Amino acid sequence: MTKVLVSDPIDQAGIDILSQVAQVDVRTGLSPEQLVGCIGDYDGLMIRSGTQVTAEVIEAAARLRIIGRAGVGVDNVDVPAATRRGVIVVNSPEGNTIAAAEHALALMLSLSRHVPHAHASTMAGGWDRKTYVGNELYKKTLGVVGLGKIGSHVARVARALGMDVAAYDPFISAERAQLLQVRLLPLPQLFAEADYVSLHLPRTPDTENLVNAALLATMKPTARLVNCARGGIIDEQALADAVENRVIAGAAIDVYAKEPLAADSPLRLVKERLILTPHLGASTEEAQENVAIDVAEQIRDVLLGLPARSA
Ligand code: NAD
Ligand code: MLT
């Protein structure tokens, strides 16, 4: 009997597809030891970002043929270890593009108008119309770092809001930038000029702690920073200090160097001008259905002996 383990919450549409060809066991919240203990029974594994598929898990996965990541980033999968064992790794590169872009835009707007803090104050009985005077996005400069699928959608919507959009992305062409009506700038200039910076690049050894105290210090004191891409790209202590000391006007963060965010993270100590969400970029009903169907179809095809697209 072909068996697939689903170890993170996945939309039912994906489970229905997998059930056409396999027995599907949904077992979320497994400890690393439990996962190592049971993975040997499975031909396929479907995950989101919660499950860490380490070399040890792959070593124990004697029957495993495919790992499907219902999302973009495969950074929670040891892909070299999987490749060594001949296990295919697939993902859904486009299923949550709009969701992540809209979350970045929602954070940018919320940050500008102090929505979470004004809400908390009003719910606590206040009626404070002075503290929460905000700023408009119209005619401001947005700096997009990483002009890929999500960054491009953010740029398009920002243009429609009347923003001037600049971008830093060493891998995209001048033609592509021109098509999106975006000016390409070197990274230091983009941080120095922008009123808003939104990160949409991957976490790699090159981008780790890219946004550090020195780069934050070059931003305008009125500038705001949004990270809906990956944790670890921003030095979190440096960001907490920059917001606390008004080096920048604010920040909104969805992703963290270590998730879930530690109880004693310096970010949790910043009470004003900082918005934190728990990795919600892809959490729309539409995106979860898209990525579940996309990845489940790829797993199904491989289990049927058909070729798959590699992540
Ligand atoms: P993408 O591959 O389409 O775009 C990434 C872009 O970053 C590419 O254009 C690439 O050239 C550029 N890039 C690479 N290295 C760079 C560098 N050093 N400096 C500047 N640009 C660089 O990916 P995408 O689908 O747009 O996703 C972007 C990021 O968002 C990824 O890290 C992804 O994991 C993350 N993401 C987060 C959520 C969430 O829930 N918060 C949801 C989906 C995706
Ligand atoms: C992704 O890489 O797709 C996102 O981070 C969303 C998720 O974790 O589901």
Secondary-structure topology with pairs:
Elements: E1 3-6, H1 12-19, E2 23-26, H2 32-38, E3 44-47, H3 55-60, E4 66-69, H4 79-84, E5 88-90, H5 97-112, H6 115-123, E6 141-145, H7 149-160, E7 164-168, H8 174-179, E8 183-184, H9 187-193, E9 196-199, H10 213-217, E10 224-227, H11 236-244, E11 250-253, E12 274-276, H12 285-303
Parallel strand pairs: 1-2, 1-3, 3-4, 4-5, 6-7, 6-9, 7-8, 9-10, 10-11, 11-12
Helix pairs in contact: 1-12, 5-7
The structure holds nicotinamide-adenine-dinucleotide and D-malate (MLT).
D-malate binds next to loops.
Give a brief rundown of this model.
The protein is an alpha/beta fold. It has 12 helices and 12 strands. Strands 8-7-6-9-10-11-12 form a 7-stranded parallel beta sheet, sandwiched between helices. Strands 2-1-3-4-5 form a 5-stranded parallel beta sheet.
Key phrases:
311 residues, alpha/beta, 7-stranded parallel sheet, 5-stranded parallel sheet, binds nicotinamide-adenine-dinucleotide, binds D-malate
Beta-strand proportion: 5-15%
Question: What is the rounded distance between the termini?
Answer: 26 Å
Mean pLDDT: 97
Alpha-beta classification: alpha/beta
Helix fraction, binned, reads: 25-40%
The general outline is globular
Q: What's the tally of helices?
A: 12
Number of strands: 12
Profile the largest sheet.
7 strands, parallel
Q: Give the cofactors and ligands.
A: nicotinamide-adenine-dinucleotide, D-malate
Ranges where pLDDT stays below 50 over 5 or more residues in a row are: none
